[in-house]
Structures are given as C-alpha cells and as structure tokens.
Model the fold of this input.
Amino acid sequence: MVENLNRHELCLDSHGLYAMMNYLSEPINFNEALNEFGGDREGLVEVIAVFLETVQEQMQTLYRAIAAGEAEAVAMEAHRIKGGAATLIADDLAAAAYALELQGSSGCLIGVEPLLSRFEQELKRLCDYLQGMGICHESINC
Amino acid sequence: MKVLIVEDEVVSRFKLQKIVEEFCACVAVESGEAALEIAWSGHPPDLILLDIELPGIDGYEVCARLKADHRTVDVPLIFITGKREKEAEVRGLELGAVDYIAKPFKRAIIKARLRTHLELQQHRTRLEELVRERTIGLVQAKKEAEAANRIKTEFLRNINHEIKTPLHGIIGTVDLLSVTALTPLQEKYIHLLQRSGDRLLTLIQDILDFSVIGSERIELAPEPMSLKKTIGEVLEIKRYAAEKKGLSLELHIDEEAPDEMLADPGRLRQILIYLLDNSIKFTETGAVDIRVGIKDDTVKDRILLQFSVDDTGIGVAPDKKKMIFESFTQADGSPRRRHEGAGLGLTIASRLVKHLGGDIWLDSKPGPGALFRFTILFALIDKNQE
Done:
C-alpha cells in the first residue's frame, strides 16, 4: 500500500501517511477474531466489551504513570493492552500500545506524547468501528 | 483431565479458556499466587498454561515454585507470553517448562500443543498407574514367596528333627552293638552301618544349616574370644579325619595378629569346619594348611583378618570357580563322581562370611590344590576398659 501511494507520488509526511493507512485499514479483523474464538460471536462480543472497559481503567493508569514519569509502569500497562489488542486482531491498536511499551522500556518518557496521542486515536477508531458494527455498547466511553 | 490457565489479561484468558474447553475442564486464574493455591489444593492439574508477566509473583517464580514441590514437579507447564526476547524462552525452558508459545497466539497452535501435551500426560499417568499396579503385585508376590519360604524352612526344621531323632537311636544302638562280641563279618557290617549313619547325620545337619541360613536372620553371639583357641578347637575336631587320610593339618597365625577379640566363635568355627571338610574331602595326599594374617588394621578398634585354607588336593578347574559357592554344586557334577556330599558346605560358609561382613573367594595358586581365602572384620577388645 505504501509502495502504491509512493507510485502515485502523493507527497505525505509520516503523520499524513499514517492517517491515510488508518483510513484504508480496518481497526479490527473481526472475522479472523471470530474464527480464533471458535466462532463464538456472543463470547467474542462480550470479551471485547470487557477489554474496552479494562482499557479505560488502564488508560487512567497510563496517564498517572506518564505524569509521574514512571517509565516502567508505562511499559507494563502498555504491554498488557498490547496483548489484549493483538489477541483481538486489533493490530493497529496493538502496534500503538507496543510503541508506548518500547518507549517505557527505554526508561525515558521524553517524546511519549505523540505515541500516547496515536494510541488514543487508535482506541477511538476501534470504538467507533465496533459501534458502527453494532457490536459495542454505546455506554463505553471511548 | 484438567488444565490450569494463569493469565492476567482478560482477552487472552478468555480465548485460552474457549480453546481448552474443547479438550477438557479448565480453571483460569489471574495471578501467580492464585495459581499456586489451585495447583496445590486437591488433585494437581494435568497441564498448566502460564503467562510470564503477572501482577505479584511472575510466571518464572510460579514455575520455579511448582517445580520445587513434589505435588506439582511432574505437571507439564507451557509458557504463553508476549515477551519477544529469546532469553525469556530459554529461561522458561530451563526452569522446567515443556513448551513456550509467543503471543499473540493462534488458536490452531494452542490446539496442536494442547493435544500433544495432554496426550503425553495421559500416557504418563497410565504408565504410572501400570507401574503402581505392577509394584503392588510384586510386593504381594514377594510377601507370598517369603511366607512360602518360611513354611518350607519350618517344614525342613521339623522333618530334620523327626529324621535325626530315630537316626540318633540307630547310631547309638549300633555303637552299643559294636562293643559286644561280634564275628569278623558282623564287625564289618557294623562298621558299614556306623559310616553310613554318620554320613546321613552330617548330610541332615548341612541341610538344616543351609535352610536356616538361606531364609532367616542369623543371630550372632559376640563374646571375648581367643583366635588361637577357637581355631585350635576346629583342628582338634578335624585332625582325626585328616590323619585318617595321611594328611598333615597345620596352623600358621601371623605373630602380629591379636589373639583376643570380640566375635562369635561358633560362627568362625562353622566356617572353618566347612572349608576344612571340603579340603580334606578333595585331598588324597599332602597337607591342608590354615593361615591367618592381618589384611587391614587401619580402622580404629577394628581389625580385618584374612584366613586361608590351602590344600594339595584335586583343585578346581578355572571354569568351575564361579559356581563353587553355589548351593548343591560340586565341581564334578557327574553321576559317577567320587566324592559324597550335598554340595552345601561352601555355600553355607560363604553365606556366613558375608553375614559377618567379610568376603570369601577361591584364589589361584601355583601347583595343585585349592586355596580358599576369606576375610572377617573383628572388633578389638579395649584392654583399658577391661
């Protein structure tokens, strides 16, 4: 896809390219996830809801850790979110969480804001997508 | 079968549960502490799927504790983790895990690994059950064999007694008859009766000794004993048999060897009598010598003496040396063998020596004859204490 974009000589900076890629890809491969969960749609929907609720709590932990400069705590929390997202085949959210994890693991939180912002965008995109599919309860505040 | 899932992240935990439930029952917990509690209460799980990064104690520590406990040491454990470093995998396997699966895991991979390890565990459990059943069977068979052996020994003891009592009556009566006025032919018959009676009595005594030594704990009666006196008594008993065949019977005790020690003189006499019986029986001309020397005196309050019974008889063929201490064995096993006896003497002597903590063997020697050696560890008498 990146090659195609380059071939059409679209002049995009990295942020623009990222936005374009997001626009083109789905935030979750629901069918593959359904297959991975043994075809149990009800169970998958339920676990997605629990995941999103848990992420809300984890986000608060992330904000607190970033504010306190606790890089290790950032890495640990991002690692957990990454695991859940990757298991749900929500690859973009998993990638954003992994970037945060790597930043936390480096022990230095300088430059963490854009990564956090990307993570928030991915989470919102996932919520919107799921709500659009009618499989995510609106009460979950993304 | 039951699988324990230890995973703090909800999506992975739920997915693992869904997969495991296709195979068997499962219990899912979120922390290492809860995992240990479940694993050690009641029947341990058949397989554990364990995440590494957990709140509280981590997966490595959980694995180490499970492997250190006898209840869960054999439970197969698979690490499932998002840790991407190769070192993490190596460490997990070194701690005793049977497998390592990286996150995000695929349903097909988990299913395949589960199938493999659960089948292995089933085979292992079945094998353990079989071993347990066979062990119970063997223990039972051993008990039955021991009981049968005890009955056999008791029977032999009783039958020996029942045979010996009338035999003593016969021998005593023949002895009384031998001192009455007899014709030369009657004397010849009486002499034949005496010889046969004595042979029968010796044979019965050997069988009794053998049956007791073979199946029961031999009681030892240690007492202060003079080495010279004890061996002298043996020589007195056997001198007549040796002289009758024109054999000299000599005793050589190393001057350095102590004379007084704490031992069971009865058992030492028995051993020497059996060895001398054997040497005199198989020696037609020459001598039978007993030698006693120190083998080892480096242990405090103990001394290891080596006894040798050296004869100039027919000796033992090299290929028969190994079987010489086996029961009911004579080097010449042919039906036309010249020497009488049940072949129990050397077996009894060998078992007695071993019971006294010593060793017995047939040594090689130049020239004709046999050289038997045995060692016995004696306790020395503390003169100061006396």
User: Anything to note?
Assistant: The longest strand of chain B covers residues 287-296. The CA atoms of residues 234 and 272 of chain B lie 7 Å apart. Residues 107-178 of chain B form the longest helix (72 residues).
